[in-house]
Amino acid sequence: MKKPSNRLFFCGVFSYLCNMGREILIQEDYLDDPWKMMVCCICLNQTSNKQVRPILDILFSIIPDPNSAVLCQKEMISECLKSTGFQNVKADRIKKMSSKWIEGFRDPLDLPGIGKYGQDSWDIFINGNIERETSDKKLSAYLSFFRR
Questions:
Q1: How many CA atoms lie within 13 A of 3 on its CB side?
Q2: Which fold has domain 7-147?
């Protein structure tokens, strides 16, 4: 797994100085915890920030780290995710991704349940690559904001 270097300072300063007039993405709330950010990317699949944001505190109180996610019953995670839709699929992906996280990985695409959106999020928020091209509307708006 690639360890983040100065990304907290980089993204944190940009977020702090430049967040006026734009939606704060969920990923920005988890700059200090890449695992949680990847869980958020799974939760955001087929839904919106508006549906996911309210359940995150409860979800992360139940599964605060990858080890607890692996040990947690899938039904408990599913119950937290119910309002986001596809809760059983997402719970399964969170458990599998967490298991692989513990084993180790080289690229976010190696993680089960992490696709292009998760990879784009990793590159933008963990690696601090604001030159990345993405097809996601919200990530594109975020990048456009910082490129001006």
A1: 1
A2: Endonuclease III; domain 1 (1.10.340)
